[in-house]
Amino acid sequence: MDTSLRYGGESRALRIATNKNPPTVKYAGDVSALKIHAKQKLQIDSNTLLQLSGELDTGTGLPTFLCALVRHSYPTLSASLGAGLHYDKNENLHCTLRGKKAYPVSFNRDVNFVLKGRCNIDQELTQPTPQGALELVWNMLDFQKDQDVRLKLGLEIVDKIPYVQVRENNWTFNVDINGRWNVRYHL
User: Fold this and answer.
1) CB 166 within 8 A of CB 151
2) Taking Cα atoms as reference points, which of 45, 49, 48 lies closest to residue 2?
3) Omega before residue 22 within 30° of 0, cis
C-alpha cells in the first residue's frame, strides 16, 4: 500500500523570517490541513489493475474522498485508460473517466511530453467536469545512488494554470502560479 501525508496551503500562509541566521520558513496556517492519503493497487492482469484510494482529514477525522478505479495500460502505445467511482466529503458520487498518453521527446524516454485528461460525471449524469493537462516530464533515474527524481512542468488546460512538480522517492512538492502548494511525504 502506498501511504502518504499531504500538507498544503497557499503561499500567503508562509512566513519567512529573514532576520534569523539561517533564514527560516514556517507555515502560519491551520495545522488541521494535514491529510493522510492511502492508495492500494491490486493487479488484475499484466496490464490491468484496480486502484483503491482515499484521504483522511486529521482535523475533522473524516474522509475527504474514497475512490475505486480500474486502470488499463497499453505499453506499446505509452497510454492508459481508467474508469471508476469517486465519493467525496460532500456526499457526492461521481463517475470518473481518465486517460493519459506519453510522447517520448528523448531517445532513452527520460523526457516525455504527456497529455492527460479526466472527466468526473455527477450521479444524475448531467454535469460533466472535464480536467486536463499538458506536461513536460523529465525522469532522472539514479539522480544520486538509489534516488530517482522526476520534474514536471505542466499546464492545466481548462483553468489555464501553469504548475511545477518535483518528485523524489520519498516526497513530492507541487506548486502552481496561483500560489497553491502541497508537500506529500511517502511513507
Assistant:
1) yes
2) 49
3) yes
- The C-alpha cell that represents 154 in the structure block: 505542466
The four Cα atoms 186, 98, 106, 176 give a dihedral, to 10 degrees, of: -60
The mean of the pLDDT values for the chain is 83
Q: What are phi and psi of 46, to 5 degrees?
A: -60, -25
> How is residue 140 written as a grid cell?
532522472
pTM of the model: 0.75
Task: Supply φ then ψ for residue 168, to 5 degrees.
Answer: -120, 175
C-alpha cell at position 91: 456526499
The angle at the Cα of 47, spanning 128 to 4, to the nearest 5 degrees, equals 65
Of the pLDDT bands very low, low, confident and very high (cuts 50, 70, 90), residue 32 is very low
Which three cell numbers mark 31?
A: 495545522
**Please, are residues 66 and 56 in contact by the beta-carbon 8 Å criterion?**
no
How many residues belong to the chain?
A: 187
97: exposed, middle or buried (Cβ count in 10 Å: 0-12, 13-18, 19+):
middle
pLDDT-derived band at 14 (thresholds 50, 70, 90) equals very low
* H or E element in which residue 160 lies: none
